Amino acid sequence: MERYLPKNETNGGGIDNAAFQLQENGDTGGYAKNRHSSVSSSSLHVPKRKKSIVQLTREALPRLENYRNSRRAVKRPSLGELHGGDDNVKDPKSSEQAEQEESSNQHVVIKLGWIQGVLIPCLLNIWGVMLFLRLSWVVAEAGIGLSLVIIAISGVVCIITTLSLSAICTNGEVKGGGIYYIISRSLGPEFGASVGIVFAFANAVSASMNTIGFCDSLNGLLKNYGEKIIDNGIQDTRIIGTVAILVMILICAIGMEWESKAQNFLIAAIVGAMIDFMVGAIVGPLNNTQRAQGFVGFNSSIFAENWGPMFRWSKGLDYDFFQVFAIFFPSVTGIQAGANISGDLKDPASAIPKGTMLALLISMGSYALFVIFAGGAAIRDASGNLTDLEYGNITACAETYNCDYGLFNSEQMMQIMSSWWPLIYAGCFAATLSTALTNLLSVPRLIQALGIDKIYPGLIFFSKGYGKHGEPYRGYVLTFIVSTAFLLIADLNAIAPLISNFYLASYALINFCTFHAALIKPLGWRPTFKYYNTWLSLVGFIMCVVIMFLINWWSSLITFIIILGLYLLVVYRKPDVNWGSSTQAQTYKTALTTAQRLINIGEHVKNYKPQILVLCGSPQARPPLLDFANLITKNNSLLIIGDVVDKKLPHKIRSDRIKSVYTYLRNSKIKAFYSIIDHTSFEVGAKALLQTSGIGKLSPNVLMMGYKNDWITCDKHELLAYFNVLHAAFDHRVSVTILRVNNGLDYSKLTENEDQGNINSDTALSTNTSSGLRTSDSNNMMHADSNLSLANVGLPENNSSINLATPKGNNKVKKKNDQFQLRLALDLSPDQQLSVENMTLFRRKQNKGNIDVWWLYDDGGLTMLLPYIISTRNDWSSCKLRVFALATNKNDLELEERNMAQLLSKFRLDYSSLKMVSISDKPEDKTIQFFDELLARVRTNEDVQGNDILVTETELHALQDKTYRQLRLRELLLENSSDANFIVMSLPMPRKGTISALLYMAWLEALTKDMPPYLLVRGNQQSVYMCFFTKLFNILIENSFK
Fold it and tell me: Where in the numbering of this chain does the Amino acid permease/ SLC12A domain appear (predicted)?
């Protein structure tokens, strides 16, 4: 009889799951033999041992842990680990450090449910000081009808805001920070931080307002017994209020558990007081004293009399509907109480919508009942005198505004109308203190969240948490100071409108967040709360803003100025945060839509912009070339940096390289795109960039290259690649510019960091030449963590690096003093100082001088346009344009100069001088000798064989006239432009099949050698100026042949 192992033993006691376990090949008899030694192996049938799928594959199964937005989240294998390659090595050390950092910031927090964490705090925050001390006054001013309208408008605003708030809260994890966290993660740190500060300030002031209400109620109670501290007024309010705030701060600082227990007691007292008031109003007055004080019981005539408004002058202000609305609105501003402590909730996504909406419905209903009860059972004015009651003239005092009781005059009407007045005092104390307690609890946590995110440097100090709950004790101290400062005002009506504006501004932005996210509809916008509407949120936003300005336009203006100032401060600081906000999605959508619209917009010469593809390799290696390209495109047009690397780059190194380049561009304040092509030759990569870089109409129309200084000594394939790229650009109808400066463009040796042991200097396009166009060696990669700050220049050689990016904080240094600052700060040799000066050539303020433009051939006007753009830049504004043009008739230079001047005037280009030159004369012998010496090493009398690259006598003879023209131009350049700040000249056209690479480079060498900074330009023969100049060109041509 065969024996079988139990099922739980087939996998070592594990669970046999056929979906996730596979059989393992091999004999498991040894395992069975050890367990059942008395049974022979021939009679034992043992199922093969199974392995989990996790043990057999690198793939990760879909699990929640893989998607947590935390450094401690379980990481799925990278694509490199799955696919294989050279860059699939993990860094266990960094993972351990991340876990330690994450764990060090974690605190054990007591989590609350939706009732204890949202419903009760919202009700306590809503049922505040206005319920017991100002609601009767609101009824007296606005009447029952308009009071219900005020409640309805407030309810509509709050309901719409609650719907928007619920949508945002259920669109992802809601952490500590409440309103700040919600807005910052939705609209970005600029809006979130500014509104967060304002909202924290509003909550702190609201705590003061409710504490003042508590003090006023207590003063009224003491006054009934003839007791006081100092004056039974403002001074007593200040003393009692300061002590009350201090006690409440201590309660909050003890922790959530004690605060929650206190809230349970407070909500019970408020509900009891509300029931007491309604019972008393239904029963009616029990004695004449109550009747004399204005409580007459339910009466249809009283209800009708109190239905309409009766706005009066009170406490120095002539009240109207919106002024009364401003006094009432703070009583409905508790809907954010649950969101403020969202980090302490078990499930914020479901708790906040459920608890907030229910609290809002309960509170709005209770307010409506209170308005009806108060307006239907009490009169507006009463003297409180029993004699007046006996004679039926208790309202006569209203004529002289000398009444002490009634809805208008007495803050104690709820006590008068209640069945047992001590319970009303208890409810009033509970309502005011509970709202203040909730506000005081939320402000420090909001400030702590702002400090943790490091948005404002001054708040970082308040981010530290203490104890196992991470209590923000420093924030409590700050909250105490602010609240106490506003408590000293001791006037409810003065504080309420200010709070209303701050809360309305916050609610407006909450609605705008939802509207913006729902309108843009990024893929990440998937709220589980479905009962919201895009346009309803927009209506809520508009309502909040309109009501703000109707309440008080100047305080609303101040509120928005404060928010704008805080917003601009964040924009200026540019915090390094990425929260996936809807503004980021809007930026992408706008850019995509605009790029698509550009495709259907016809090109017009008036809107021409030079869009440059600069082949500079890594920007750190050739700062002058990139700076010059940026000089042209800055804030006006497209700039793409092309980098071709001949070796294959692993993904990590490639990513680090891209990150390093964009960091350099950001610090240098250069707006450009970076495109890298690896594992290919320079020629193939450059041709690929010419065809594929850009998108739609945002594609380069100008190719910029550095001059190849080593064209004689370099490898012949490099020279041909350089020459073929020029041909490729013209084949694709792209303009070409070549920049040459003294000492070359390549400063990779000076900018590379030699201190990092793991550094690969692949950022340098070449290491042995100052040519502007050689492919990179993979041994020269510079990592993104390289220290590229100017602060380290001047340290020992193996610990130095130079980067021309302007460090943050040095923006106040004037550009004209840059070199002076460098010489003082950097201990460099004279050669190194000269190199630094050459590197910053196109960043320095230029001395007075000239930009010489040699417009030899009509290429569409690009040769004139580029120097004009340069002359408009601040650093080159002191340089004047001098124009040189070719004369077709040597004997009639005056007429041709006049015609050219007329042409330039039509271009509306300012220039200091114009000179016509002729190149028909033969160059001098010494110039010809100079040219012959250039070609001495590459000149041959024989025909070129195979792949040799030489200049034959046949070619020289065939192109002798063109060569002489170039040499004659050199003589004119030495004569006229040797002292210029910059030279721009038309680039000779390398006609296909007519001229060799060596001879063409010899022409360029003859034109540019020993000259000031030099730019050769050849347009694509398309006009870059207005097309109505065609007729003018015809006139010039006709006149030139007369």
Answer: 117-613
